[in-house]
Amino acid sequence: MIDLMLIGIGTGNPEHVTLQAARLLNDADLILIPDKGEDKSDLARVRRQICDTVLTGGTRVVSFDLPTRDEATPDYHARVVDWHDAIAAIWVREIRENLGPQGKVAFLVWGDPSLYDSTLRIADRVAKILPLRVRVVPGITSLQALTAAHRIPINDLGAPFTVTTGRQLRDAGWPDGVDTLAVMLDGQCSFQSIPPKGVHIWWSGYAGMVQEINLSGPLAETAPQIMAARAEARAQHGWIMDIYLMRRQTPRGDTDE
């Protein structure tokens, strides 16, 4: 039996790795680190830095190449499903070649494996081929790092909030009945599609990391600043992870909650 450990590592800061995560990484026989190509080599380097920081024994660390997603396929869900199938096949190959039929293998997952991440879906595919026991170790999310960086609560008093993606924001607009939106996985600055009047935005690039950039203010004024900072940071580092919170500034009466 193979123990597959999906370990949330926060936003890339070694200090975000929990004691539980560090213990299980040291308990693993193998850690697999995906390489997403030269443009995103920093991502693999950050994972290796985390390993260098927390590993105290002889755990093997092996890198492997990830396939690229076929963006030419018009159906978004179809191309993501095909991509996940391809990644799962590579996981199976790497586990067989580097671990064998039993042992403990760990993957370092950005943020938390259960929030807008597909690692668990890929693990489900692998479990249809290899005998697996899957364990999930929660991590600090970029959402937590964003609100901490800006020193704000995520919701208004007694009010709900919605976590969504840039694609959903562009395609469906601002959801009804919600004044606060947290937007993840947005490579196209989809806040541009929202009428800016009365909207405040808090944005973080590389939240929780040494490169962290924070901007906030009325959407109409801040959007151009975010887009310029984002483009400059991406050009400098070759990649960027960012997240933002938007809130409609609607009048509310006092409550007793």
* Overall pLDDT level: 89
Catalogue the unreliable spans.
251-257
Secondary structure: number of strands: 10
Assign the CATH class of the largest domain. Answer: Alpha Beta
At the fold tier of CATH, the topology name of the largest domain is Cobalt-precorrin-4 Transmethylase, domain 1
Q: Which structural class fits the helix and strand makeup?
A: alpha/beta
Tell the overall outline.
globular
Number of domains: 2
How far is the first residue's CA from the last residue's CA? 51 Å
Oligomer: single chain
Radius of gyration: 20 Å
Task: Note the total helix count.
Answer: 7
Helix percent reads 25-40%
Q: Which second-level CATH architecture of the largest domain applies?
A: 3-Layer(aba) Sandwich
Numbering strands along the chain, what is their spatial order in the largest sheet?
3-2-4-1-5
- Provide the succession of SSEs: EHEHEHEHEHEHEEEHE
Reported for the largest beta sheet, the result is: 5 strands, parallel
Describe what this molecule looks like in 3D.
- With 257 residues, this protein is of the alpha/beta class.
- It folds into two domains: 2-137, Tetrapyrrole methylase, N-terminal domain (Cobalt-precorrin-4 Transmethylase, domain 1, 3-Layer(aba) Sandwich), CATH 3.40.1010.10; 142-248, 2-Layer Sandwich (Methyltransferase, Cobalt-precorrin-4 Transmethylase, Domain 2).
- The protein is 35% helix and 24% strand.
- The chain has seven helices and ten strands.
- It has helices at residues 19-27, 41-54, 76-98, 119-127, 142-150, 166-172, 219-237, and strands spanning 2-8, 30-35, 60-65, 103-109, 132-137, 162-165, 180-184, 199-205, 213-218, 242-248.
- The strands form two sheets. It has a five-stranded parallel sheet with strand order 3-2-4-1-5, with helices on both faces. Strands 6-7-10-8-9 form a five-stranded mixed sheet, sandwiched between helices.
- Helix 6 links the parallel strand 6 and strand 7 (180-184).
- The longest helix has 23 residues, at 76-98.
- The chain is globular.
- It starts with a strand and ends in a 9-residue tail after the last strand.
